[in-house]
Write a structure and sequence with these properties.
- 76% of the residues lie in helices and 0% in strands.
- The chain is mainly alpha-helical.
- The protein has two domains: 316 residues, no CATH class; 82 residues, no CATH class.
- The longest helix has 58 residues.
Length: 425
């Protein structure tokens, strides 16, 4: 056990949970080394995925054109076989659809049993076949601009990772990014994209787990009764998590229906920015430093419940879960540094629950509509960008206030509002 009055040892080796064989210095070095190694591996993996995504984007149109040209022969045979009256609808249909869609529709209609190529029913079969091609499949095969390409997946992953733990709202940024990328117009695709935005949070979760591995193990030791401070922290996290879990399940449909839109996000960005600037101004006038306040180990379950209630406000997209929990921590007496770390750990719990819930609920839709590679690309991108963002944020707040995030929120709110009014978004 650790000496009296000292901080409990956070041993990263699970085999030693019930002992204290690893000294603190060795534990810290081990955890840091593993974390850096994982970040490097993920960074190289992201680089490979980026190159692959760019190559796929460049070569995709050429391959699609070749496939369409090869598929036009059977389409021409079917069209030529029919009388002029039957040719016109087929020609119009072929011209109105993307090459891959037209080919798929013609091939499917050719396989229909009992439908003659020279009858009006052939045109109906072609139209029905084209209509039934999933939008995600068209995007994958024909490069449809409403689909989620690997480059789209990469962009969304980076946006998720960079903004998840900063007090700027990852949900707001993702919704605006999806709007800019043109992910709309199909119910299945929109459902899959919304679920995808939650599932790629797994990358951000892994980033915090790697960077705060020692603290995570301390919580595990507390759960099994080997670390009093870890047990206290575990109870605090549970108290903070429960309000969001209950409200999230009960109000999910209402929140998505009325709040997941551009203007609610813009309002939340600007109001949140003003609140941050007020807090930062107060800290500057009072001379308060980032470490001044109650340490995280002193957080009680009652105070943690207050933070959890404020976290519920962040279900309004644009508010930011990180902002709500950091300000909640400050409200109950934590220092800024302690509030930021607690926000990371609470995010680990909340995001894990949301990701598991969304994967179970919509995982099949994600795979069916978007495939398997897009989620993988998004998770890797989110992991690397989140790790870099967290490291930067911790270092920055050790020397500065939260004011920069307030100014950023106001600026992006004004810019997005202007783009909406101009008809760009």
């Amino acid at each position: 056990m650790s000496p009296a009055g000292s901080r409990p040892i956070s041993d990263p080796c699970l085999v030693y949970l019930s002992t204290s064989r690893c000294p603190p210095a060795r534990t810290a070095a081990y955890a840091g080394g593993v974390g850096r190694a994982l970040v490097r591996i993920a960074g190289w993996a992201l680089l490979v995925v980026c190159v692959w995504a760019l190559v796929a984007e460049v070569s995709g149109p050429a391959a699609t054109a070749a496939t369409a040209a090869a598929a036009q022969a059977p389409a021409a045979v079917l069209t030529a076989a029919g009388p002029p009256a039957a040719q016109a609808p087929a020609a119009v249909l072929t011209a109105a659809r993307p090459p891959a869609a037209s080919a798929a529709g013609v091939v499917a209609s050719a396989s229909a049993v009992g439908v003659a190529a020279d009858s009006p029913a052939a045109d109906v079969a072609v139209a029905e076949s084209v209509r039934q091609v999933p939008l995600g499949a068209l995007a994958a095969e024909a490069g449809d601009d409403k689909g989620l390409s690997l480059l789209d997946a990469l962009i969304l992953g980076v946006v998720e990772g960079v903004t998840e733990y900063l007090p700027v709202s990852s949900t707001g940024h993702l919704l605006v990014t999806e709007q800019a990328l043109g992910i709309y117009g199909n119910a299945d695709l929109e459902t899959a994209a919304d679920a995808y935005a939650i599932c790629i949070q797994f990358g951000a979760i892994m980033a915090v787990l790697v960077l705060y591995w020692g603290r995570f193990v301390q919580i595990l030791r507390g759960i099994i009764g080997r670390d009093p401070q870890g047990r206290r922290l575990a109870w605090a996290l549970l108290a903070s998590f429960i309000p969001a879990a209950v409200l999230g399940v009960l109000g999910e449909q209402y929140i998505k229906e009325y709040l997941f839109a551009i203007w609610p996000i813009v309002i939340a960005w600007i109001v949140g920015g003003i609140v941050i600037l007020i807090v930062a101004h107060h800290d500057t006038r009072s001379g308060r430093t980032s470490t001044e306040g109650t340490p995280m180990e002193g957080l009680t379950a009652k105070r943690a419940l207050v933070i959890g209630l404020l976290q519920c406000v962040a279900m309004w997209p644009g508010v930011s879960r990180s902002l709500a929990t950091i300000l909640g921590g400050r409200l109950v007496g934590l220092g800024t540094a302690a509030a930021v770390e607690y926000s990371f750990l609470l995010g680990l719990v909340t995001l894990t629950a949301a990701t598991v819930y969304s994967t179970i609920k919509d995982g099949a839709v994600i795979v069916e509509t978007l495939g398997i590679m897009a989620p993988i690309v998004g998770v890797i991108a989110a992991f690397v960008s989140a790790a870099l963002a967290v490291k930067w944020m911790v270092g920055y707040l050790n020397r500065h206030s939260l004011a920069v995030f307030g100014w950023y929120r106001i600026a992006i709110g004004i810019v997005v509002a202007a783009l909406v009014l101009a008809g760009v978004l």
